[in-house]
Structures are given as C-alpha cells and as structure tokens.
Design goal:
The chain is α+β, with helices and mostly antiparallel strands and about 425 residues long. The protein has a single domain, classed as FAD/NAD(P)-binding domain (3-Layer(bba) Sandwich). Helix content is about 35%, strand content about 25%. It has 15 helices and 20 strands. The strands form four sheets. Strands 3, 4, 5, 6, 13, 14, 15, 16 and 17 form a nine-stranded mixed β-sheet that branches. The two termini are about 40 Å apart.
Length: about 425
C-alpha cells in the first residue's frame, strides 16, 4: 500500500478527464482537473455515443444523467441523395450490449459529466492552459500553467484533445495533427419531427451522394428539440483557413451548391439552420508511444479517431475506465508498467477503429456515376449483414472491473440540475 493518497493531475476537462477522475475518486486518489477554457462549454455540435461508451458512463455513475438530456438513436437509415431508402439497421441492441446508443449535444454531455464530477467534490480549475511539465526523478511531477500557477502531483494524464498541450510538452517531436482535406460543416435547425423528448427513440439518417455525404438526427437542447445535421465533402470549397472565416450566409450558399438538388429535407435543413459550424477534419499520425515518464495520454490526445467511425467519444471513455482500473489496482504505483500495459491493451483496438473511420471516410468522397451505383449496391447488400454478431467486436467491448462509481439518485440529479 502507498503511504499517501496518490495525486493525479488531469489536464483537460472535456469528457474523458472528468470520467477518469470519477473512477480514480472511487479509489481515494487525490484528483484534480485543469481545463484551459473559462468554464463548461455551451457551444459545439452533437455526437453519438455507442453502447460501449454508454457502458463506461454507467460504470462511472453518470449514465442516467446523460440519458436525461439525450435521445436514443435506435435505428440507422441509409439513403441516397434522391431520397431512396437503401437499407436500415438497428443502431445497437440494448439487451445485447447493456446500454442504448444515444444522440446528444456536446454541451449537454460535457455539462452532465462535469456537474457530476463537481458533485463528487472533484476540483475543476478553469483558465488553466498548460505550458510545460517538469518530471524530475525523486520529486513530484509539476504542471506549469500560462497564468503563472503550478500544480504538483504523482502523475499527469493528458486528456486535452487532438491539439494536446500535454503531448506537446512531453513529446515535442511527436507527429502533429494533419488536415485530412475534408470539412465537416454542420448545424442546428428547427426540428422537423414532433414527439422529440429526452430518451425518445430517433432514427439517424445517413445520406450518400455522388459528390458528398449528409447526415441528420433529432435531439434535445435547452431551447427545445432541434435537428442536428452535418455534411462531408471530399475537399473544401476553399482552403481550411478561408473556410473557417466564412459567414453563416456564405456557408449556406456553399452547402446548397453541394446539396441543393438533393431530396427533402436536406435543402430545407440547410436553409433553416439557426447555427452552422464549419469543422476541418484532422488526423493524428500514429504516435510512437502514449506515455513519457510519469505522463500518459488518453483519448484524442493519444489516438484521434475521425468522426466517420462514430466512436471518438466512446474510445476516449473506454480509455478512462481501463486506465482507471490499472491505476486503482496498482494503487498508483509502478506507473511505467501501468502505462505500458494500458497502451498494449488499448492500441490494437483504437488502431482498428481508426482504420474503420478512414474506410468510412473514403465512402464519402466524390465518385463517378459508376462508382456511385456500386456504392449503393454495396450498402443494400452489406448493411443487413452488419447486424448482431458483426458489430460485437465494436459494441460489446467492456472493461472487466467489478468496481463501479455509485450512481447519482434521481433526486440528487434534479438538485444538481437546478
């Protein structure tokens, strides 16, 4: 047993950082979270959490809070740009996988998790942009922040995303994120369906066209139901920097140039959008290692997963539970072995998911008429074959750990929400 509570410094207060903190808190680690932004984000798009990610949230005691502010993505509908339904598939079998997949705004997911962490007395420090790390043997590891403050601990976890400052601090020669040449503009529009409430079942639409891709689903926001949509083009209409500077009206014009002749409701969603984000898709080349000394990277900081896989958040959540398990079982000792074991277990799986995302992205590139016809036939043929066991490798993954974080009661959730 260690002679003092191990001190964990978690850099990044998005999704993975607070969930890891919850796991460590359950084993009496002294855990602090440091976040560069000024507070919980109220902006951003939306995402899907697959059953494997939801199972982690259940173990962390926060799954009910997340379900309270999301909808269930119960079915995937694959269509072409003319509005023809090519195939349907269940998004995830709750009886088979333990938890349903959900569709949720990033702001709602972040707030549910961070509020639960704070309710568990986990300190969250904002406006803390990391600038450097001192890791001197025989001394505490030290994180230096841009405001001149420092924090000491026994180890550091970098959960600060694709542009990780932790990675830059401890691996300055590591490959940098690279722009893939694909943009992912998306937005929120007035909801096109009725009956969209938290936990309601909603279909997720994937529309494949000859010159790009469009997807949409209904979800809930503090302002009420909204339809979230996104577009993927094989190449931006302008450079990445110029696209980032375009106005909402200009983005709508560009998107209508791509999708204006597609079947309803695609043009209507673009025209009625209340907010549009324009996100360049980046990739992180495989890192030679995920740890250095007493610092380890998790989530996008270690292995950014393209959005085409639908698994980015779920992979980061899996990381938190597996690393939490190793750290708790070792009582924070033997960090080098813990970090090696973590990477050896997680890298093959994340590599496989990254490859899946890249293959899915290739299916959204501009095609010739013949290639487009072939793609549609493949969707018709192979989507039905992906049911049940064909998805088990991805969705049935669970970290075998009998220690779970106590869930928050409905009464306590209501008090926190107020």
């Amino acid at each position: 047993m260690s002679i003092h509570r191990k001190r964990a410094l978690i850099i990044g207060g998005g999704v993975a950082g607070p969930v890891l903190a919850l796991f460590l808190k359950s084993s009496d680690f002294d855990t602090q979270i440091f976040e560069a932004s000024s507070g919980p984000s109220d902006t951003g798009g939306a995402l899907g959490l697959a059953p494997n990610g939801m199972n982690v949230l259940a173990a962390a005691g926060v799954v009910e809070q997340v379900r309270d502010v999301s909808v269930t993505g119960n079915e995937w509908a694959f269509e072409n740009q003319r509005g023809k339904l090519l195939a349907c598939a269940p998004a995830g079998d709750t009886a088979r996988y333990g938890q349903p997949p959900v569709m949720i705004t990033r702001a709602a997911l972040h707030r549910a998790i961070i509020e639960h962490a704070e309710a568990q007395d986990i300190p969250v420090h904002y406006n803390k942009r990391l600038v450097s790390i001192d890791d001197i043997p025989g001394h505490p590891i030290v994180a230096h922040f841009a405001d001149g403050t420092v924090a000491e601990g026994d180890f550091i976890v970098g959960a600060d995303g694709i542009r990780s400052q932790v990675r830059q601090a401890v691996m300055p020669d590591a490959p940098k994120p690279s722009y893939t040449g694909m943009m992912a503009p998306g937005g929120f529009s007035p909801c096109i369906d009725t009956g969209v409430t938290p936990r309601s079942n909603q279909r997720v639409h994937f529309i494949f066209g000859q010159n790009g891709f469009f997807g949409y689903f209904n979800t809930v926001t503090p302002e009420g139901p909204r339809t979230l949509w996104w577009s993927t083009a094989s190449a931006p209409l302008e450079s990445k920097d110029k696209m980032a500077a375009t106005t909402k009206a200009e983005l709508q014009q560009r998107l209508l140039a791509l999708h204006g002749d597609w079947a309803d409701p695609v043009p209507q969603l673009i025209q009625s959008a209340t907010d549009i984000l324009n996100i360049p898709i980046h990739d992180v080349p495989s890192l030679p290692r995920w740890s250095a000394g007493r610092t380890i990277l998790i989530g996008d900081a270690a292995h950014a997963v393209a959005p085409h896989s639908g698994q980015g958040a779920s992979m980061a959540l899996e990381d938190t539970m597996y690393l939490g398990k190793l750290l708790c079982e070792s009582d924070g000792e033997h960090l080098e072995k813990v970090f090696v074991d973590f990477e050896q277990h997680r890298r093959p799986r994340t590599d496989k998911v990254i490859a899946l995302g890249r293959r899915n992205g290739q299916r959204k590139e501009k095609m010739s008429p013949v290639e487009f016809w072939i793609q549609q036939q493949m969707i018709r043929l192979f989507v039905p074959l992906t049911r049940a066991k064909k998805q088990d490798w991805l969705l049935a993954y669970k970290v075998e750990w009998d220690r779970a974080v106590p869930a928050m009661s409905a009464r306590t959730r209501s008090m926190v929400a107020r």
